[in-house]
């Protein structure tokens, strides 16, 4: 089996959990041990996030991971105002910042500030490597994590809705954009603090979430019939 497989990742699963699950199905179908089957992905989703995970099945595809990874993406985002989180999402320790309740005009103005190419500092709890170690591993050990800002592009922020303390919106962003960092930056612009309370990825490049498979009930036959070639 080889090709691109689109999966709708459930909340609570890591991206590796999904890869491992699919690898076991491929292994049984091909009569191999899982460690001898090549399955990878083109970009992680946080465990609490849901949505489109693009898997690569077979050696011919996993060796092209770099080529197939640099795609623009679309996300449905929910952010909570008034607090920050150590991880930038709902998993971290929360710290109240300010009880000010912004109006819709302030919300829209803050979101608009981040359109276009911006310099963004990735979150400490990320998979970026520092001297060979993942940043989140260092952060969990209480080590100071210093990451340099990098250019990313926020193409569009749309369909924003607001009912304090939650703001929801859809954004189209370049590869390498961290939505947790975007939310934290918006919270700083509002002077209220904010963290990402929910995230769903709905597009990766030309791949839409609508064509993704559910993990529940996934079989070798279904998997084979939904592999895409690229």
Question: What are its keywords?
Answer:
about 230 residues, alpha+beta, Pseudouridine synthase, 2 domains, ten-stranded mixed beta sheet, two-stranded antiparallel ribbon
Secondary-structure blueprint:
Blueprint: E1 3-9, H1 15-30, E2 39-41, E3 50-57, H2 59-62, H3 65-69, E4 73-81, E5 83-85, E6 94-96, H4 104-112, E7 116-120, E8 129-130, E9 133-134, H5 135-140, E10 150-163, E11 166-173, H6 179-190, E12 194-204, E13 207-208, E14 213-214, H7 220-225
Parallel strand pairs: 1-14, 3-12
Antiparallel strand pairs: 1-3, 2-3, 4-11, 4-12, 5-6, 7-10, 8-9, 10-11, 12-13
Helix pairs in contact: 4-6
Could you give a quick summary of the protein structure above?
The chain is α+β, with helices and mostly antiparallel strands. The chain has seven helices and 14 strands. It folds into two domains: 3-70 and 206-225, Pseudouridine synthase; 73-204, Pseudouridine synthase (2-Layer Sandwich), CATH 3.30.2350.
Question: Any overview of this molecule?
Answer:
There is one protein chain. With 230 residues, this protein is an alpha+beta fold. Helices cover 25% and strands 34% of the residues. The longest helix has 16 residues. The two termini are 14 Å apart. The model has no long low-confidence stretch (mean pLDDT 90).
